[in-house]
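Fold sample X.
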Amino acid sequence: MSAIAYTGIHHLALVTRDMDQTIRFWRDLLGLPLVVAMGRPGYRHYFFALSEHDTVAFFEWNDAEPVPEKDHGVPVKGPVAFDHVSFGVSRREALWDLKARLEAAGFWASEVIDHGFVLSLYSFDPNGIAIEFSYAVPEVDVRREPRLVDPKPSAVTLEGPEPRWEAWPSGGHVPEEDRVVYPGEGEKLRAPKSVWKPGHPS
């Protein structure tokens, strides 16, 4: 199998019960532009641009409740699928800028922590979602030079950082007649009237 070129996390889909509060936090406090606002009665799905390739999305579900705040990285028992999400920042100083903005708005923000390859600031959004902001330390480039510091790595870990395609069956080829794209919200988003007019609602 040939390598797949990933461009990043296209979107991380999260949940809120209050989209307006979520917009205020992610767009107006953190500075992520709101680039897609779609929905229908009882349903909204909004996307905030994080970078050229990555977005953060929210479903608004009226019966959802904020999750209890759980400290980042602290183990829990029972069913679990998510701990926290980390967003990279391009400048070291941005960590302290974010800390000041979050605290001025009444949100808890941790001290900046040195993890060796990143410096990290931790907080929570209004939905209780654990978030981290990370500055990649330039002199420790783990993509160019991966590090192994686990004192008891498994045999699978010791196989190295590169993908072992042979560990799984080949996916084969999807025939052309089966390559069907089914309709979703696409037509609405491609309509000219869907574009925001500066300073005015669409």
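Fold sample Y, listed below.
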Amino acid sequence: MSALSNSKRYYTLVGTILCQFALGSVYTWSLFNEGLSHKLSQPLSQVAFTFGLLSLGLAVASSLSGRMQEKFGLRAVAITAGLALGLGLYLTSTATNLTMLYIYGGILVGAADGTGYLLTLSNCVKWFPERKGLASAFSIGAYGLGSLGFKYLNLALLNRFGMESAFGIWAIVALVLIVGGAFLISEAPQPALGNARARAAAGDYTLAEAVRQPKYWMLALMFLTVCMSGLYLIGVAKDVGERYVGLSTSVAADTVAIVAAANLLGRLVLGVLSDKIPRIQILSIALACALAGMLLLLFVPLNEYSFYVAVACVAFSFGGTITVYPGLVSDFFGLTNLARNYGLIYLGFGIGSVIGSIVSSALGGFLPTFYLSLVLLVVSLLCSVSLWPSHSHGSKPVAAAH
């Protein structure tokens, strides 16, 4: 790699980290629910539904981001995503009814966040083909740290300026970080590949070619499973601690810190290891870890510490899986069409987050979703083992060498 290209990829890494840090700020949304509920005179549950729409919009936009990049270019789309996120956050502060809140805070913010997230992430991974796991760990780690950093910023803004002004300042900070980061990002060079046979020989598949293979849908099932179990438990961890385990409110609240720490640790540890061990085997470790957590929740008498361990196992698995997956998908289907190939699988993030809540609401309580997660985790673990390379050689599975 030339000195110029080497410089471009490290500028791209810095720009991606800035973008991802700002995009991760949407996970502080719950800080604003109570204020929005009071302002709109609506039940908290209906206001909180905004974040469900945001997650769904994020996943759908992520699946379409590859097409937008092809049509308009990465930098233009990333800048537009930053502007749209800032606009969505500002307009949310002006919402006077639930419909406006759902459109501005749910659909617009979610779509902007999802577009910027997957686009910048997949481009960064392409710049580091020999360190895909490390590039993912830096990028997605920044996304996770964004939720932590903006938690303190937004809390301070809420306490000092009130909700409307806090939304406005949040919008400006996020916009500046994303647009500034986008100007540092260069689009990764695309290999010149010809017909389908040439692409397959190089390990590169279009989305149309990838979806015709059973292993693509196995990867999609595994991703959905981890997202469903992880997002559901992370979202209700405090409530599970209080109502299911019988912990005090203060002790149960500590679960939030446990989740954040385990999530970040999973991203860093499994992301780094995935450059040394075949990524499909790393995914099996993540699935086994989540399975252990679910078994603890369902079949072991829980106290404060065993509950913390169970939740930490699931959060560790979720964080690690999110980090490893871009590189894993590229192992099987190549880097050229990563945004599209991973984008469709990433729909499992939004679908999984909705399924967990629907099952819980329809069947009553936490346990039905936990049991469904347990079954899917067993199936997914078996699927992952079936995709192991017959001979370990680097991080690339035999399935990717055609």
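Sample Y note: Residues 214-245 form the longest helix (32 residues).
Also: The mean pLDDT is 86.
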